[in-house]
Amino acid sequence: MHILFAWIGRTDLDAETKGWDGPILNALLKRRFDEVRLLADWPQKEVSRYLAWLELRAPQTRIHCRPSPLSQPNAFIEIYRHVSAAITEAISKAGPSPSLTFHLSPGTPVMASVWLLLATSRFPAELIESSLLSLNTVETPFNLPAEILPDLLREPDRRLAAATAEKPVAASSFGEIIFQSDAMREVVALARKAAPRNVPLLIEGESGTGKELLAHAVHNSSPRRGRMIVVNCGAIPATLVESRLFGHVKGAFTGAVSTQLGCFEEADGGTLFLDEIGELPLEAQVALLRVLQEGEITRIGENKVRKVDVRVITATHRDLFIDMIQGRFREDLFYRLAVLRIRLPALRERGSDLALLIGRALDKINAEMANDPLYTPKSLSQSACQLLMTQNWRGNVRELYNTMRRALVWSDRQCLERDDIEAALFQDTRRSTDEGILNRPLGRDCNLDAILEDVMAHYIGRAIEKAGGNKTRAANLIGYSSYQRLDAQRKRLGI
Ligand SMILES: Nc1ncnc2c1ncn2[C@@H]1O[C@H](COP(=O)(O)OP(=O)(O)OP(=O)(O)O)[C@@H](O)[C@H]1O
Q1: Could you tell me if 353 and 451 lie in one domain?
Q2: How far is CA 227 from CA 224, 269, 314, in A?
Q3: Of 34, 1, 3, 24, which is closest to residue 125 (Cα–Cα)?
Q4: How many domains does the structure of the chain reveal?
Q5: Pocket mutation for ligand 1, best pick of 164, 169, 207, 430 (most atoms within 8 Å of C-beta)
Q6: Pair (457, 407) in one structural domain
Q7: Domain end among 344, 371, 397
Q8: pLDDT greater at residue 68 or residue 169
């Protein structure tokens, strides 16, 4: 399918009265295009008159025209945005591998430069220009690789990546926890009571249920003046756990090139949030117990004992009680940490919270994107809402938010439809590797290496998403000591 794209220019609008074809008709008469996609920043009346004339003169071509208002004819970002949306829409409706042609002649020089940049980067296309007598292909003397594209053009990609990545949990208060279900009401009431008491709190719940959000709310409602330090125990290599907790002095071990504070000292006077506490190796559990009992730490490589005043909040997606019974978690430590114990219900147990969360997520994402010139606030159709309401949301609120973020940022529609949500759900690597992974049929078709690669892809995808695209953090989240290793796996698995 051959598609021609062009802005309608003044010379096109005047062509009929001046007795010549104008650049757009010139192209349609000299080449065969299945459809032409026009962009217009002119009064509707003039455009309608022109389109009626064009249809008569080029009856073999389907003509689409997209009103594309500009605040001024050289508004780069607005032009870029209209053009990207027009191309994306055309591609989504065309069959496989449409062939694109951009017409450089109609419109302003900035419009021509946007065609040029897009043709040599995001949407490879042929460029043409027309003069009174001829129509020529424009050879570009360069092929802009992504690295040398002007920042302006790369910006939309960066924004898209940033916008679809998970936002870090902000220092929150109870007011930021959205709920109306009884199950959550109980949880929040309990947490409010726990907040001012200077005792350890264990928060349990599936991934993405808001454990860190709740921990921030508890800390911020407590009288503690210091900061809340967040440490993901699952992301620290086993050999470095004690150093991360208690700090070390220069030369304490190979690689200790300078003295570093541990998280207990960093959190002195405040709260230490130990996420994924169930992943803490047994040796580190002994050391942690000692600090909790004595309120003192000793940096590795030093004999000096230092007093610390830290409230510890821990969280886990595991059943720590079962881990304790089965000997994977120390009993004495369990009872130290679980003085107060709160279990966050999974999203599927929260009834009407889901509809409320969908509405709030929509407002929140629209507000977050308000300063992005490439984004316009969006709404959800009933069918889109319906699909969101009927999902299982195994990744709970995080998965819901991230799916909605992807759908809202990717779609060019003002009101999202069911297929926009489907596309965003489909991107979730978690869905392709469900529980069935352990029960695939044995036999000649079974490919253990491929199954293991699925699992790797699944975890790497999750880590990247959770780390908001930060490679070092993502590597740590899956126990890799360097992001280069993560990168190599990503490339190998084509993630
Ligand atoms: N009730 C809620 N209201 C508003 N936002 C929520 C709620 N619950 C979770 N979120 C949001 O969902 C995302 C995930 O929450 P959070 O990181 O606190 O979950 P978690 O249980 O700590 O996850 P993990 O176990 O994977 O670390 C965050 O963006 C958080 O702000």
Answers
A1: no
A2: 8, 7, 16
A3: 3
A4: 4
A5: 169
A6: no
A7: 344
A8: 68
**Ranges 59-63, 95-99, 227-231, 285-289: which has the least confidence:** 95-99
Note the pLDDT tens digit of each residue in 321-330: 888 888 889 9
Average pLDDT value for the chain: 86
- The CATH number of the domain where 246 resides is what? 3.40.50.300
pLDDT at residue 365 greater than cutoff 50: yes
> What CATH code is carried by the domain that includes residue 386?
1.10.8.60
Residues with CB under 6 A from ligand 1: 167, 169, 177-179, 205, 207-213, 275, 317, 397-398, 401
Looking at the fold, whether 135 and 236 belong to one and the same domain comes out as no
Overall average pLDDT of the 352-375 stretch: 89
**Mean pLDDT, residues 305-315 taken together:** 95
Using CA positions, which residue lies closest to atom 7 of ligand 1? 210
Cβ proximity of 306 and 191 under 8 Å? no
Ligand 1 centroid to Cα of residue 454, in Å, is 26
In a domain, 170, yes or no: no
What backbone torsions phi and psi does residue 179 show, to the nearest 5 degrees?
A: -165, 160
- Using N-to-C axis directions, what is the helix angle for 10-18 and 44-57, rounded to 10°? 60
Give the ligand 1 atom nearest the CA of 168. Answer: 29
Rounded Cα gap, residues 277 and 272, in angstroms: 12
CA of 135 to the centre of ligand 1 (A): 57
User: Looking at the predicted structure, is the pLDDT value of residue 429 above 60?
Assistant: no
Range of the domain at 452: 437-493
Q: With CA atoms as reference, report the closest residue to 41 among 2, 3, 83.
A: 83
Shortest-distance Cα residue to atom 15 of ligand 1: 210
